[in-house]
Amino acid sequence: MKYKTWPVVIPADLADEWATYGAGTRQRAEDLARQVMFTLTGQRFGTITATVRPCFQPADVGRNYRGAGHVFWPGLLNGAPNAVGPCGCSPQCTEVGYDRLALPGPVHEVVSVMIDGVLVDETAYRVDHRRWLHRIDGQRWPKHQDLHAADDAVGAFTIVYLQGLPVPDPGPEMAGLLAVEFARGMQSGSCKLPDRATSVSRQGVSVELADIREWFTNGLTGIEQVDLWIMAVNPYKSRRPARITSPESVRERRAMVIR
Question: For 69-119, how does the pLDDT look when each residue is reduced to its tens digit (9 = 90+)?
């Protein structure tokens, strides 16, 4: 899950207090802060490591600007040695061989590109528009690959990269501030998280509680500094990243392994 990669940085002025909490409390508080911040910012930020095995479809199956689309097939990476992709087994793939291919994005950073078990020098390619892996050394990407081969074996074409958008500053510090407040609440201490009591009748001991879900429905945590930053990066309170689709477009089939 992308939210698990959200960095949490405890503010320097709260470091001593943070150290007084037990390891279990700190871990739970950080996990809560990560998930809340990830959700309230529209699930836009965070990166995961993706491993893909590019394979090209025939022109009459998919299409792009050159007449053929491409898919990503896990091959042996998911533990299914008999799996076959849209381009078939072993050498049955259509020979296309472009100098660039589209990766499921956004692409933050390419970790490695391996062909026939040999790493391709990072100077031989670049990433364009957070999506296209463009080969710039005059060569082309493999025309086909053996999907039954391991990712580091002869006949395989494997790309490992970080998918997603990194958390912008000061997002990690905001997550750290929220984590401290969660830890305080777990220890029954004074914290800035919203109090559910909206009205109290002292004589009759009557307490009216607000639904805590209203805070998160409105995209807020109740902590001023954190909420200001959330509103800055997610002003329209989006719940998930936007996508553009068209009823006339041909949907490319893709499969990929995330590990």
Answer: 455 544 333 333 333 344 443 344 434 457 888 898 899 999 999 999 999
DSSP for 218-250 reads TT--S-HHHHHHHHHH-TT--SS------TTSP
Report phi then psi at 115, rounded to 5.
-125, 125
Adjacent-strand bridge partners of 160? 51, 112
* Of residues 210, 224, 142, 134, the one with CA closest to residue 181: 224
Note the Cα 63 to chain centre separation in Å.
Answer: 26
Q: Which two tokens stand for residue 107?
A: 């692409």
pTM tops 0.85? no
Neighbours of 208 (CB within 10 A): 10
> Which of 95, 100, 99 is closest to 145 using CA atoms?
95
Give kind and range of the element (H or E) at residue 217.
helix 213-217
Report the 10 Å Cβ neighbour count for 146.
20
Domain ranges of the chain: 3-45+168-233, 47-56+94-166
- Residue the block writes with tokens 């995961």: 48
What is the C-alpha separation between 144 and 134, in angstroms, rounded? Answer: 17
Assess contact for 14 and 177: CB atoms under 8 A. yes
Rounded alpha-carbon distances, angstroms, from residue 1 to 28, 45, 46, 247: 16, 11, 9, 30
